[in-house]
């Protein structure tokens, strides 16, 4: 029987949605979790709730665009629990709009959070993984990068860049020390639409999420499946989307 008991997992973007659902599920299954996000009060409350239910959880305020913050997350995890087995790169934003809108600030923000934030995770976690002889990098990507829809060009580009980094890290990690998993959700009922700048796109996304979106717990189960595998098994990529999504 595969188990998460004893796993030490740090999660970015854990103040809601997929990150929160992942923290709660992993803790229920026996992992110790360190939640991180910019909203300190929110992650403190979630961590406290997990502990009240008998789980192990800590919280660390992190802005993933700041490399020092992500290094502090890894250091906090190691200080609290002795090691870090998994880093879940979940933080992401989607201020999407047609390219013709020339929302260069939105483009830069997506690059900073979705791509540079993930690279900051690699830079922070990889030395710890190497030092302890094992580690697992999990990133929440998106099916938006598999089929690029209107208004999604830059968002999809950042997600495909993350996919490329994962494949590069995999090919550089054939000694078996580091495992990588990219998980691509389809429509999930989260507040991601709140970060979308264009009103019509934002409203359409919200309606679609409400109509067909799967719960964040569905993605959390995919994360659990990937990290509970034995050390000689790597689940490289998982797509998780509504059955009715085209």
TrEMBL record:
Positions in coiled-coil regions: none
Domain of life where this protein originates: Bacteria
Keyword Oxidoreductase annotated: yes
InterPro entries assigned to the protein according to its UniProt record, in alphabetical order: NAD(P)-bd_dom_sf, Sc_DH/Rdtase_CS, SDR_fam
Keyword NADP appears in the UniProt entry: no
An example molecular function term from Gene Ontology annotations: oxidoreductase activity, acting on the CH-OH group of donors, NAD or NADP as acceptor
Protein name from the UniProt record: 2-hydroxycyclohexanecarboxyl-CoA dehydrogenase
Keywords: Oxidoreductase
PANTHER family in UniProt: DEHYDROGENASE/REDUCTASE SDR FAMILY MEMBER 11, DEHYDROGENASE_REDUCTASE SDR FAMILY MEMBER 11
Pfam family, one: adh_short
């Amino acid at each position: 029987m595969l188990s998460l008991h004893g796993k030490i997992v740090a999660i970015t973007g854990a103040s809601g949605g997929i990150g929160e659902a992942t923290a709660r599920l992993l803790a229920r299954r026996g992992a110790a979790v360190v939640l991180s996000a910019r909203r300190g009060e929110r992650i403190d409350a979630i961590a406290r709730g997990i502990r009240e239910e008998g789980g192990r959880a800590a919280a660390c305020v992190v802005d993933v665009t700041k490399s020092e913050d992500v290094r502090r997350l890894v250091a906090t995890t190691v200080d609290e629990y002795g090691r870090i087995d998994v880093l879940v790169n979940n933080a992401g934003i989607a201020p999407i709009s047609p390219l013709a809108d020339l929302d260069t600030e939105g483009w830069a923000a997506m690059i900073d959070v979705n791509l540079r934030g993930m690279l900051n995770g690699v830079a922070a976690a990889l030395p710890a993984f190497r030092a302890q002889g094992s580690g697992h990098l999990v990133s929440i990507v998106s099916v938006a990068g598999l089929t690029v829809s209107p208004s999604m060009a830059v968002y999809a580009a950042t997600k495909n860049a993350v996919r490329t980094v994962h494949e590069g890290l995999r090919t550089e990690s054939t000694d078996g020390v580091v495992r990588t998993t990219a998980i691509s959700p389809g429509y999930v009922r989260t507040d991601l639409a709140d970060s979308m700048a264009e009103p019509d796109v934002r409203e359409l996304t919200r309606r679609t999420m409400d109509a067909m979106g799967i719960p964040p717990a569905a993605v959390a189960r995919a994360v659990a499946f990937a990290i509970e595998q034995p050390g000689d098994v790597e689940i490289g990529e998982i797509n998780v989307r509504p059955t009715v999504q085209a």
